[in-house]
Design a protein that fits this description.
The chain is an all-alpha fold. The protein has 9 helices and no strands. α2 (14-35) crosses α4 (64-95) and α3 packs across α8 (146-174).
């Protein structure tokens, strides 16, 4: 069983995703993590950062500006799909027992995050794993104003995508030798982006967010 899990994780590593699938698979992963609740475990932040580092190389031979636009569109559409899933199926999902791919606590945590920050959470929450995936589902469930959701969704998609992709791109331009240390860069980024999730989870477990 351990070997199977290890194999799955290896194939879902950001480097493997881009190496094997290129731009199409990259966009599909971004869409799935943003648009479908069972994609919460996918490596969104590190994938975007790595895409920026590999942009312009044969493995990802596309303009950096087009790359940002493509990924932002995938993230934007993904949130719309997730919103409608929450709108149409949210109540049914909450009535289901917890499983490996859906836990009501994730949805409740996203709801608490939105209660504190309102529509600004759609922008900031994009940088927090799990919150990023379940927040639009939650907004659909509570029937949040769709026009406001679209505006903040667009801003959040552009900000999340451009900041991470361009950070990876410019870091590679300034320090080209870093391309040889991708594993360490990815691990560092995962640790950094996991901290807000852990902090949010602990606040959620303690009670109402202050």
């Amino acid at each position: 069983m351990y070997e199977i899990i290890q194999s799955i994780l290896e194939h879902l590593s950001p480097a493997m995703i881009i190496n094997r699938g290129g731009l199409i698979v990259l966009l599909a992963i971004v869409f799935t993590e943003n648009g479908v609740f069972f994609g919460f475990f996918l490596p969104g932040d590190s994938l975007l950062f790595l895409a920026g580092m590999l942009c312009g190389l044969p493995i990802l031979d596309v303009s950096i500006y087009l790359l940002v636009v493509y990924i932002a569109i995938s993230a934007f559409i993904g949130y719309i799909v997730s919103y409608y899933i929450g709108l149409k199926l949210g109540t049914w999902l909450l009535s289901r027992p917890d499983s490996l791919f859906f836990k009501s606590s994730y949805l409740n945590m996203a709801s608490s995050y939105f209660d504190k920050r309102q529509h600004g959470a759609i922008i900031i929450g994009r940088f927090i794993p799990v919150i990023r995936t379940f927040l639009p589902l939650c907004l659909g469930l509570i029937k949040s104003d769709f026009k406001n959701f679209l505006i903040y969704n667009l801003i959040g998609a552009l900000f999340w995508t451009s900041s991470l992709v361009l950070a990876g791109y410019w870091l590679k331009m300034i320090f080209p030798d870093l391309i040889h240390y991708l594993e360490w860069i990815i691990l560092t980024l995962i640790a950094i982006t996991s901290f807000p999730l852990i902090r949010q989870y602990l606040k959620f477990k303690r009670g109402p967010i202050s």
